[in-house]
Amino acid sequence: MKFSLLIPVYNVENYLRDCLDSVISQVFDDFEVICVDDGSTDSSGKICDEYKAQYPERISVIHKVNEGLVSARRIGLKNAIGEYVCFLDSDDFIVPYFFEVLFQEIQSCNPDIVIFGYNRVDLFGKFVEEVSPPLTGGRYTLQEMSKIRDIVVSSDKLNNLCFKCIKSEIVDIDTDYTKYYSIRNGEDLIQSLPIFDKATTISVIKDCLYLYRSSPNSMTNSRISINNINSWLAMYSVLCEYAERWGYPESVYRQRFGIILKSIFSSLIINRYADAIHKKSEQNELLNRLMENDFQTALQLFRPKKLSIEQFYKYILIPKSRLIARISLVVLGDCYRWLKKY
C-alpha cells in the first residue's frame, strides 16, 4: 500500500460527504482511508459506516470515545499500513489528482516529506485564495534542512499536518501523546516537530492539492479559554526544546512567542463587543492566567521589535497589574469598535 489517508471525524455531518466524495474520486488507487470517529454525537459516524459499506476495500472506520484530535490521529497512525501517510480534516476535501501528483514526486526523488500548497475556500466550497508553501519548490537535503527549520522555528506557516505527505518510517508511532489529548491549539506543530527532526530529504511542490475550508469561528473571531492558553504554552515549550536541539540561539526561537501574544490579544480585543464577547468573570480568569509564572517567564524572555504591537502587548502585561491590562483592553476594544463602525 502506497498511501494511508487519515481522517479524524467529529460532528461534521454537513461537510463529511464532500470530504469522502473527494477521496473516492481519486484517479490514483493505491491507497487506504482510515476514518476515526471521535465520539461524534451527530450523524457523522453513520455517514462513515455508509461509505465503508459502499467501499469496503478502500475505507475502514474506527469508532472511539471523544478524546480530541490528537488522540484520533494517533489511533489512525497506529492502524495505517501505507508507505506514506497523509492527513485530511473531515470538513475539508482534496483535488482528484491528490495522490497522483504525490506519487509522481515520490517516484522522482523518494523524499521523507512532501510539502504542498492548498486553496482556501469558504464554507460553501467557493475559492478564496491560493496558498503556496513558503519555500522555493524543489528537493531539500539534510545539508539544506536549515532553510526548512528556519521557517518552522520563526513562523506558523509549516505547522499544519494536512499539507504534508510523510514517510511512515519517520513518524514517531510509539511516542505516548496522552498528555496532549486536551490540546486545542498547536497540536499539528507538536506532532510535526519530531517528523522534521528525523527527515533527511524534503520535497516542496507548488501544486495546491488540498482545499481548506475557512471558518468564521477562527481563533481570532472566537473567544479564547484557559485551555487555549495552556495549549499554546505546551506547543511553545516543545518548539523551544527542538529549536535548542537544532542549534538555534534563544534570542531566535523566543521570538515565536509573539505569535501567541498577538493571538491572545486579538481575541480579547475583538470580542469585547463581538457576538462571542468575553464576560467579566471570563476576562478575570484569563487575565489571572496570563499573570501566572509560566506565561510571565515566557513573556520576559520574549524580545519584541521596538515600537511594534507585540512590544505594546508585552508592556501591558509585564507590570503584573490586572488593572492596567483591563483598562488597556477596554480602550483597545473601544478603538476596534470605532474603526469597524467607520
TrEMBL record:
Against Gene3D superfamilies, the record matches this protein to: Spore Coat Polysaccharide Biosynthesis Protein SpsA, Chain A
Domain Glycosyltransferase 2-like, residue spans: 4-123
Q: Which SUPFAM superfamilies match?
A: Nucleotide-diphospho-sugar transferases (SSF53448)
Highest taxon of the lineage:
Bacteria
Q: Which PANTHER family match?
A: GLYCOSYLTRANSFERASE (PTHR22916), UDP-GLCNAC:BETAGAL BETA-1,3-N-ACETYLGLUCOSAMINYLTRANSFERASE-LIKE PROTEIN 1 (PTHR22916:SF3)
Q: What name does this protein carry?
A: Glycosyltransferase
Question: What is the originating organism of this protein?
Answer: Sphaerochaeta associata
